[in-house]
Amino acid sequence: MALNGTYDPDNIFAKILRGDMPAVTVHEDDVALAFMDIFPQAKGHTLVIPKGVQARNLIEMPGDRLGSYMLRVQNITRAVAAALEPDGIVVTQFNGAPAGQTVFHLHFHIIPRWEGEVLAGHSGGKQADMDELKSLARQIAAKV
Ligand code: 5GP
Predict the structure, then answer these.
(1) 29-62, pLDDT tens digit by residue?
(2) All structural domains of the chain
(3) Which of 1, 56, 85, 122 is at 20 to 30 A from 106, Cα to Cα?
(4) CB of 17 closer than 6 A to ligand 1?
(5) Model pTM?
(6) 135 C-beta neighbours (distance < 10 Å), count
(7) Which one of 10, 21, 26, 39 would you pick to mutate in the ligand 1 pocket, going by the greatest count of ligand atoms within 8 A of its CB?
């Protein structure tokens, strides 16, 4: 899907927000939901999505909702840092399929990095072990 288009209320993340699809939740409030990426690029790969908006990407996010959402992105990034103590953290966000976006509900990726560890491909990795994801989610949630 290119940059211009309409929001699909049946995209995977909308379904997760509605409870129609399962997700391993890290943290949730009235502004955002943080959950584990099911095809993680690295251990602890977490996604943060805004609630109550139909924004496919950053461009479409209402300005008056952006600040509170970005605070959640920062809070979860801090929690990932505290819980997993990585050497670095990549925070990324893609706009439009040609830019690498595959799910069209705004989200930020929080991807811990460790020295010498190769990053798995974006949306090309293998599905994570659910018990491991739940354990990581609990560790991160404890630091939010
Ligand atoms: P994008 O490519 O849009 O920037 O990122 C979408 C992300 O969602 C990818 O990292 C992909 O692994 C993840 N993803 C795709 N389907 C699911 C799913 O059903 N559950 C979860 N938790 N993550 C998903």
Answers:
(1) 999 999 999 999 999 999 999 999 999 999 999 9
(2) 12-141 (3.30.428.10)
(3) 85
(4) no
(5) 0.97
(6) 13
(7) 39
